[in-house]
């Protein structure tokens, strides 16, 4: 009787172990596949986010070309800025000759933005860095008076005088609304069942990342994609809602 009972018990326990091993391997393979798919999505949509920010930078380059063609003068700023703001994710377009913001479109509600960027307590250091290193900088996110958050893109402009010598003209600037600027990419990811987080270094000389935008839930062991804008690093992280493992399989 003991032998008749023992053999089926051993077979049963061996069967349990075999099923456990198979499930473990299937789960590990599926988790690895999920990581690969998530990384591909992070790369693809991270590039889309980079392109959306770059489109904002392109607006500052258009303003730069106008300044070059007009030898540092800028006529009909409001009309040109209005045409450039066809993208609804742009909060405002600005000119800052010698680092002092003198023109903002739209002007209503943005009067407080007319400041000396190079000597401002919060903006001075990074603005001077952009000027001295001839590099575009992005600063933010910060709260907008009209509601929501924004990121300022400042493009230092250098022209040449009558002697061919280069001089600092000032900045062309756009303020991008957050998270509107990322809405297409993150909406697509959410429909695929992903949580996300977008972060950037708070300054070109810093390794500290600040969160720019994120979904409501926390991320569990996210995969990430990094890219560079100007001299600042951006990180786009994604993870499946509810974690990597298939609880139904378990």
Structural class: alpha+beta
Mean pLDDT: 87
- First-residue to last-residue Cα separation: 35 Å
Number of strands: 9
Spell out the helices and strands N to C.
Answer: HHEEHEEEHEEEE
The description of the largest β-sheet is:
5 strands, antiparallel
Shape: elongated
Poorly predicted runs are none
Number of helices: 4
Percent of residues in β-strands = 25-35%
Helix content: 25-40%
Radius of gyration: 26 Å
Strand order of the largest sheet: 2-1-5-4-3
Describe the model:
- 38% of the residues lie in helices and 29% in strands.
- It contains 4 helices and 9 strands; from the N terminus they run ααββαβββαββββ.
- Strands 2-1-5-4-3 form a 5-stranded antiparallel β-sheet, sandwiched between helices. A 4-stranded antiparallel β-sheet has the order 7-6-9-8, covered by helices on one side.
- The radius of gyration is 26 Å and the shape is elongated.
SSE topology sketch:
Layout: H1 2-69, H2 77-84, E1 90-97, E2 103-105, H3 124-133, E3 137-143, E4 149-160, E5 166-178, H4 183-191, E6 194-201, E7 209-214, E8 223-229, E9 232-240
Antiparallel strand pairs: 1-2, 1-5, 3-4, 4-5, 6-7, 6-9, 8-9
Keywords:
alpha+beta, five-stranded antiparallel sheet, four-stranded antiparallel sheet
Condensed summary:
This protein is α+β, with helices and mostly antiparallel strands. Helix content is 38%, strand content 29%.
